[in-house]
Design a protein that fits this description.
With about 180 residues, the protein is mainly beta. It is built from one helix and ten strands; from the N terminus they run αββββββββββ. Helix content is about 10%, strand content about 45%. The radius of gyration is 21 Å and the shape is globular.
Length: about 180
């Protein structure tokens, strides 16, 4: 019998399998990290690149707007990538100081949905949904750290439901966490 092995029929096999699974889980967890922003592209719903939202500068970002109640952005990971966390924040200051949009007085809740997809369009049910609080101002300014079960697809589609508020979404920074491959 192997010293320190679990006694009983097949005990050392059970221990070996257990150690293998622990090593496998540890290796997968060790690969999970913030993805380099140069490895993915952020786009608005029309496909235009939103370079400023991935530049790690809290003073720059993009205003997302649409004629509909929902505003959407698409994260193109380039290839199938396993993702488990998404961080969104607004810029330090409003992006449009001349805005005539109505002031969002008090804190507001906005619904956010996330899809993982093989195309830039949402497919099926969202992999996660959250309600996020926005700070006051003329722009919807959401900061949120979303964790979810790992998903492996090329595209992440993030949609913010503005309800009856037509104010633009101030997207200052986006960080994606996971590992390459599926």
């Amino acid at each position: 019998m192997i010293p320190g092995a679990i006694s009983g029929k097949g005990g050392w096999v059970k221990q070996a399998v257990g150690l293998f699974l622990i090593a496998l889980i540890s290796a997968s967890s060790a690969r999970a990290a913030k993805l380099d922003a140069t490895s993915w592209t952020l786009r608005d719903a029309s496909g235009a690149a939103l370079d400023l939202a991935g530049d790690n500068n809290i003073d720059s970002g993009s205003l997302l707007d649409a004629e509909t109640a929902s505003v959407r952005c698409v994260i193109d990971l380039g290839t199938a990538t396993t993702v488990h966390r998404l961080f969104l924040t607004a810029t330090a200051q409003p992006l449009d100081g001349q805005s005539t949009d109505p002031e969002l007085g008090g804190s507001r809740m906005f619904h956010i949905r996330l899809w993982s997809s093989s195309t830039p369009e949402p497919q099926g049910a969202p992999v996660a949904e959250w309600d996020a609080r926005s700070v006051t101002g003329r722009e919807i300014r959401v900061s949120a750290n979303f964790r979810f079960q790992p998903v492996a697809r090329r595209y992440l589609v993030v949609e913010l439901d503005r309800g009856t508020w037509g104010n633009p979404w101030n997207l200052g920074e986006v960080e994606v966490y996971g590992w390459s491959g599926d």
